[in-house]
Specification:
alpha+beta; about 25% strand; three-stranded antiparallel β-sheet; elongated; 10 strands
């Protein structure tokens, strides 16, 4: 499935779709196919939770369309969902960020992590303080230390995240552990 970029204009988008800022929901103003009626919910959810909408034969992420609808232009970078919920397309939940910032806004650990805690791993070779914490800043790893338990390592990781990546530190952090 190929996602379109920067083909659609804001005027054309506003001719065919309505967007509710509060709910983040798109509805059809003009049916562009026989399967939709005026007022129908626009789009379909992908397995990864993102909503995509086909307009004039091209497929767009709903977050990008919301940005275009409100600001009048496509985002320069990527559209990041602040709450990490890809189906929440409320405009207040969206921000235009570079890819490196968008990648920082992940709650889950990388797929190779056995701990499930991003930036924290268990070193079974260490008899004392087997929990290691680290963070990446501008492509470089910063070692945060070794700790006796996962909670201490997580605390060090979150403290570093608040220091080095303050724009990606949620207002209400829900720790993994």
């Amino acid at each position: 499935m190929k996602i379109a970029r920067n083909i659609l204009t804001a005027n054309r988008l506003r001719e065919v779709l309505s967007y509710d800022l509060e709910s983040g929901v798109f509805t059809w103003l003009v049916p562009l196919s026989n399967r939709v009626k005026v007022g129908d919910f626009a789009g379909a959810f992908r397995p990864d939770g993102y909503l995509v909408i086909r307009v004039d034969g091209s497929l767009y992420h709903a977050g990008r369309l919301a940005w275009l609808f409100v600001t009048g232009q496509f985002s320069v970078g990527q559209i990041d969902h602040k709450d990490q919920n890809p189906s929440n397309n409320k405009f207040a939940n969206l921000r235009d960020v570079p890819q490196r910032v968008n990648l920082l806004n992940k709650s889950n650990a990388n797929c190779t992590s056995k701990t499930g805690i991003r930036g924290v791993n268990f070193d079974r070779r260490r008899k004392t303080n087997p929990w290691r914490a680290r963070i990446f800043v501008d492509g470089k790893e910063i070692f945060l230390g070794c700790f006796p338990d996962a909670k201490s390592a997580l605390f060090a990781r979150l403290t570093a995240q608040k220091k080095y990546h303050p724009t990606n530190f949620p207002d209400e952090w829900k720790p993994y552990v």
